[in-house]
Amino acid sequence: MAVTKIAYKPDLTSEEAMQAFKKQFEGKYDVEPARPGLVVAGRRDFVIKKNAFSGVNVKLEQGDGETKFVYTGYAPNQAAGVLVYLGGGVILSYLVWNSLTREVQSFIESAPEFK
Questions:
Q1: DSSP result, 19-32
Q2: What does each of the 115 residues of the chain score in pLDDT, given as a tens digit?
Q3: Signed CA dihedral, 19, 8, 34, 110: sign only
Q4: Number of domains composing the chain
Q5: Which domain holds residue 55?
Q6: What is the layout of strands, in order, in the sheet containing 2-6?
Q7: What is the CATH number of the domain that holds 90?
Q8: DSSP 3-state assignment of 89?
Q9: What is the pTM of this model?
């Protein structure tokens, strides 16, 4: 799990944040609300999907005087996630998800919407 603080933006909503991600990753990745029924759905606002094996789930958190994103890599397809873990466990899952997670972090840190 990664956490990136941004400029304090108490009026920023998760929907507005998701739209910024959609604009950035349009045509490259799918960005959509976390679906009910997913394990992460109650804890995350939206997901960024690269493919069945690689995605990042994201939550916008508003705290006392701070705004931050909490995000982590995951396999959007449950069967693919099982294959990743069986194929190499945590190390393989880290390698599969790490590049997309870094890309998300880089966007959060550089996006004018979050400054």
A1: HHHHHHHTTTSEEE
A2: 899 999 999 999 999 999 999 999 999 999 999 877 655 545 799 999 998 888 999 999 999 999 999 999 888 877 765 666 655 655 555 666 788 999 999 999 999 999 9
A3: positive
A4: 1
A5: 2-114
A6: 2-6, 66-74, 55-63, 46-49, 30-33
A7: 3.30.310
A8: helix
A9: 0.84
